[in-house]
Specification:
The strands form two sheets. The protein has an eight-stranded mixed sheet. The protein has a seven-stranded mixed sheet with strand order 11-10-9-12-13-15-14, with helices on both faces. The chain is elongated and about 80 Å long. A hairpin with a 2-residue loop joins strand 7 (138-145) and strand 8 (148-154). By secondary structure, it is α/β, with parallel strands linked by helices. It has helices at residues 14-23, 42-51, 70-78, 106-125, 176-185, 203-212, 234-247, 263-275, 308-311, 314-331, 344-350, 380-383; strands spanning 3-8, 27-31, 35-40, 57-66, 91-97, 130-131, 138-145, 148-154, 194-196, 256-260, 282-285, 300-303, 336-341, 356-362, 365-373.
Length: 384
């Protein structure tokens, strides 16, 4: 039976997520605000959980209910067939998003939804499920907009950027879902090498390796939101996992290169890549000013330079960006760079004209993804 699903994402990633879901063969894919909807059988919801690199969560909507106030929210949620989804021995958590003039706290809204569910199960079975906020058997997601609330089963459980590898992100880590979205906007995988000259803990390299190897990001996750859900089909899930395992291919040599001036970040990136089984990426300690193309053929540069929130010094920010712009125009002739700019000052100091600027959010911070085609002709004074 066809069902409706919602895959949520960070602002600015809707187009990348919609393209990804289309590529998975899913139907009725429609981008919205911070989310993309699609329709199909349960297998398609599982497929999105297993394969999406860009989605934050995959939700199975159950109902849209009237929620003008706490009383109506409680009464409407009670109407749901909750015994189809969990039993009295299950554990439960409610994630509530949104507020209204009558429901001014998401915590309060979550409590009313939890009360409605456990009261129904107590009345029908004589027992009630326990609450487990960390590892529940069933996680219910509620999105409130004005007087309507969408109630869903969260099929993903933990956010999907947690790939299950226990990655050490270090200071100011970039979420894997954002890195994957940027790589999709950059057109990766594509011919040539990928270089991150300020690779930090290696997030771009890890996501690029997974895409290059056609490895589903969900293969390394030990637990899902549907594991304890009564609607779960274990046989169907196993068949999708086996199909994904059969698709993994070896990584080619000389495609992924990273560097960082901080030796601890280099060690962190090497550990993360090794834990993910990525043994063909080359990472070294190198100052940005010494960066250069690792291959004679032009390729792709994708990087997230530090900015004010991370350096705390505007002069230091501008110096990093000036150096990056100088290195790109002088040494990476014919390459294309995609740079996440977290500050206007840094982007100006870069000194390169972007072909496009795409608004994205790095956590709560608004940023721009700059597309920078580098001329194949040497800078005039360098030719002299």
């Amino acid at each position: 039976m066809p069902r409706s699903f919602t895959a949520t994402c960070a602002p600015g990633l809707e187009e990348a997520l919609a393209a990804e879901l289309h590529g998975l063969g899913l139907a009725q894919v429609r981008p919205g605000r911070r989310a993309v909807t699609f329709a199909g059988p349960l297998a398609d919801g599982y497929r999105a959980c297993l394969w999406s690199r860009v989605a934050s969560r995959v939700l199975l909507p159950l109902a849209q209910v009237y929620a003008a106030d706490a009383r109506s929210l409680y009464a409407e949620v009670r109407r749901g067939p909750w015994l189809d989804h969990l039993g009295p021995d299950s554990t439960l958590a409610v994630h509530f998003v949104g507020t209204s003039p009558a429901i001014r706290s998401s915590h309060f809204g979550a409590l009313k939804v939890k009360d409605a569910i456990v009261d129904v199960l107590r009345e029908r079975t004589g027992r009630r499920p326990s609450v487990d906020l960390d590892n529940p058997d069933v996680r219910v997601h509620v999105f409130l907009h004005r007087t309507r609330a969408t109630v869903s089963i969260d099929l993903s459980g933990d956010p999907l950027h947690l790939r299950g590898l226990g990655r050490d992100g270090g200071p100011a880590p970039l979420k894997e879902t954002l890195a994957a979205g940027i790589l999709r906007y950059a057109g990766w995988p594509r011919a040539g090498a990928l270089v991150d000259p300020m690779c930090g803990s290696g997030t771009f390299l890890l996501e690029a390796a997974g895409m290059l190897a056609d490895r589903a990001p969900g293969l390394t996750r030990p637990r899902w939101g549907f594991t304890g859900w009564r609607g779960h089909d274990p046989r169907l899930w196993r068949s999708l996992v086996q199909e994904a395992e059969a698709r993994v291919r070896p990584l080619p040599e000389a495609r992924l290169f990273g560097a960082d001036a901080d030796p601890e970040q280099v060690r962190r990136a090497v550990r993360n890549l090794a834990a993910a089984g990525v043994d063909t990426a080359r990472v070294q300690r190198r100052d940005l000013a010494d960066a250069g193309p690792p291959t004679p053929e032009p390729g792709l540069i994708v990087t997230n330079p530090p900015y004010g929130e991370r350096l705390g010094d505007d002069a230091a920010v501008q110096e990093v960006w000036r150096t990056l712009g100088d290195v790109l125009r002088r040494r990476f002739l014919g390459w294309t760079a995609f740079v996440l700019a977290g500050s206007r000052e840094g982007a100006k100091a870069l000194g390169l004209r972007p072909a496009s600027r795409r608004p994205l959010f790095n956590g709560p911070l608004e940023a721009r993804l700059l597309e920078l085609p580098i001329s194949a002709r040497p800078v005039a004074r360098d030719r002299a």
